[in-house]
TrEMBL record:
Native species: Sinanaerobacter chloroacetimidivorans
Coiled coil (UniProt feature): none
Pathway listed: Lipid metabolism; butanoate metabolism
GO BP, one annotated term: acetate metabolic process
Catalytic activity of the protein: butanoate + acetyl-CoA = butanoyl-CoA + acetate
Top-level EC class as recorded in UniProt: transferase
Alphabetically ordered keywords of this record: Fatty acid metabolism, Lipid metabolism, Transferase
Domain of life: Bacteria
SUPFAM superfamilies: NagB/RpiA/CoA transferase-like (SSF100950)
Species classification: Bacteria, Bacillati, Bacillota, Clostridia, Peptostreptococcales
Name the UniProt record assigns to this protein: Butyryl-CoA:acetate CoA-transferase
Ranges where the Acetyl-CoA hydrolase/transferase C-terminal domain occurs: 278-434
Length: 445
């Protein structure tokens, strides 16, 4: 192999590789299933010697060893572009912080705005004969990470799927400083949420709006999984995929023969995505699959890319919605939950698509730890809650009680529509609050 000598020269043990990290450094840990394993263990072993290390990463699928060291917050901070449950708990312990993003802009943040990484470490697939290490299902923004980091360490994992497709989905050995041959752990999985009767009800309402030849974007969660299950069982055909996150539901739809991409005006016959996280079934499906196109997020989430695809259908979840139509998908008050991700990108892009529709959905209620039922539809968002989609952005809002198109509605019309899909037990209370806010007409009732 042409690059074998260079490979041998750069090959080091994990404990040797992480010695280049020093106090005060910015260290990038990649993304999702690409988060390092062996290098993380090696760094954790010496992290108590260091201070003020600032990590970047996101969507952790397992708890890194660095999180487990004694007095962790005295030695580092974790700065997440999008939080998983592991990172939410780390916020409570004082080591993790959210970095607000519009996901489509993330590569540019690295190239133009943020303090450059001193070191980047992440898992990759084995080097090919041309000297390239594939990012696996994590193309997202990793090329920008490599371009702007002073040192790049790749941790080779033979279990990492090789995700083909587009561009900016790999790094060449000439741009790598150190190579670690990892212990080849199984790729971190993101479990599929069980489907509830509420999820099924929402999914059925959305399925009615999807035409043959539609191009799909699905978010994560039980509701979108339910939509995928129904699509797989439906009579729909000639569907396409252009999504931020590739999830298990797409595999089910593909294996049911519903996806061929024949109606896409760009990347025809390809399933385009920025990153993927799910079960082993998903990773096996993506591995060396020429139908699937791994691409950077500033391409997949660019509203110009999205809007150029006819009949674009975007489906995402939210935490709560208020009577003005403001959508919060990120927090519960000041308690952080996940992040903005690319929801706004797809809400905007889908509406600009010829025949496109975006759906923001949620259950009408939730239960507290004490068993009390609370409405997800509120008069106004809770204090501290984040507006992910403004009231002018939302297209269709869906709960198990119905779907409403909010485009073009005045405040009283929009308020009426939103209350119509609230849980019946909360509608009278919402009407009273709407009257106080001067956005309710008595004639509506």
């Amino acid at each position: 192999m042409k690059y074998l000598n260079e490979y041998k020269q750069k090959l080091v043990r994990a404990d040797e590789a992480v010695k280049i990290i020093k106090s005060g450094d910015w260290v990038d840990y990649g993304w999702a299933s690409g988060t390092p394993v062996d290098s993380d263990k090696a760094l954790a072993a010496r992290l108590e010697e260091l201070n003020d290390i600032k990590f970047r990463g996101g969507i952790l699928l397992w708890m890194p060893e660095i999180f487990k060291i004694k007095d962790a917050k005295e030695h580092f901070t974790w700065n997440s572009w999008h939080m998983s449950g592991i990172e939410r708990k780390a916020v409570e312990s004082g080591i993790a912080y959210y970095s607000p993003i519009r996901y489509s802009e993330l590569p540019r943040y690295y190239r133009d705005s943020i303090c450059p990484n001193d070191v980047a470490i992440f898992q990759v697939a084995p080097m090919d004969k041309h000297g390239y290490f594939n990012f696996g299902p994590n193309a997202s923004h990793l090329t920008a990470v490599c371009e702007t980091s002073k040192k790049v360490i790749v941790e080779v994992n033979h279990n990492m799927p090789n995700c083909l497709g587009g561009f900016e989905n790999c790094v060449h050995i000439s741009d790598v400083d150190r190579i670690v041959e990892g212990s080849n752990p199984a790729i971190g999985e993101l479990g599929v949420s069980p489907i509830t009767p509420v999820d099924e009800a929402v999914a059925e309402l959305i399925l009615e709006e999807i035409p043959n030849g539609a191009c799909l974007q699905l978010g994560i969660g039980g509701m979108t999984n339910a939509v995928g299950t129904l699509i797989a069982k439906s009579d729909l055909k000639n569907l396409g995929v252009h999504t931020e996150m590739y999830v298990d539901a797409f595999v089910d739809i593909s294996e049911a023969g519903k996806i061929n991409g024949s109606q896409k005006s760009k990347d025809r016959f390809r399933q385009t995505y920025a990153f993927a996280a799910g079960t082993k079934k998903l990773y096996d499906f993506l591995d060396h699959n020429s139908e699937c196109m791994s691409a950077p997020v500033n391409y997949t989430n660019d509203i110009r890319s999205i809007s150029s695809l006819d009949n674009f259908i975007s489906i995402n979840n939210c935490v709560e919605v208020d009577l003005f139509g403001q959508v919060n998908s990120e927090s519960s008050g000041i308690r952080h939950i996940s992040g903005a991700g690319g929801q706004l990108d797809f809400v905007l892009g889908a509406y600009l698509s010829n025949g496109g529709k975006s759906f923001v959905c949620c259950s009408s209620t939730y239960k507290t730890r004490d068993g009390d039922m609370k409405s997800r539809i509120l008069p106004t968002l809770n204090q501290g809650s984040i507006v992910t989609d403004t009231r002018t952005n939302i297209h269709y809002f869906v709960t198990e009680y119905g779907k409403v198109n909010l485009k073009g509605l005045s405040t009283w019309q929009r308020c009426e529509a939103i209350i119509s899909v609230a849980h019946p037990d909360f509608r009278e209370e919402l009407i009273k609050e709407a009257e106080k806010m001067k956005i309710w007409k008595k004639s509506n009732k």
